[in-house]
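Why do we bother with holo predictions? Because pocket geometry can differ from the apo form. Keep that in mind while you read this record for shikimate-3-phosphate.
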Amino acid sequence: MKGPLAIIGYMGSGKSTVGRILARRLGWEFVDLDTEIAVREKRPIPQIFRESGEGYFRDLESRGLAWALGTEERVVACGGGVVLREENRRLLSAASTVFLEEDLGVLYARTRGDSRPLRGTSREEFERRYAEREALYAESCGLRVLVDGRTPEEVTEEVLRWMKG
Ligand code: S3P
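The structure, written out:
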C-alpha cells in the first residue's frame, strides 16, 4: 500500500467525499487541495478566480499539489482541473492516483447551482470541457473507477482492494 493517494476526476464526482472516507480507513491524513488553497489565500476559490484569474489559481494549485504529495500517509482530493498542467500529471503519475468517473449528466445535475467558477451554464460547455480532459485524467491515474451511482463507501472498497494489490 503505497502513498500518497491522490483522487482526481471531474467536478462533482465525489473526490472529497471518497477521499475523506479513504483517509479514515487507511488512518492517513486527508487534504482537500481546494480547501488548502482557499485557507492559505484567505479567500474562497470563486473569489480567487474573479480577482486574480485562472492562471494565478493554477500556479497555487501546482505548488499546493507538489506540497501535498510530499507526505506518504496522506490522501489528497484534487480540483477537477489539476490534470491540465503537465508538471502536475507527472506528479500524479508518480503517486497512487485514482480517477473517479461518473456519467456526465449526473455530474452536471449534481453541480447545478453551486459556485464552481468553471462549471458554466450550458451542458454543451460542461461536456466540451470534460472532453478536453478525459484523456488527461486517464493518463494520470493508476486506477480508473466507474462510480456509476454507487455509494462513496462502495467506491472506497474498490480503491482499498486495488491498494492492497
Ligand atoms: C475546477 C474544479 C474545482 C476547483 C476550481 C477549478 C476545474 O474543483 O479546483 O473551481 O477546473 O474543474 P472541484 O473539482 O472540486 O469542483
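The chain is about 55% helix and 15% strand.
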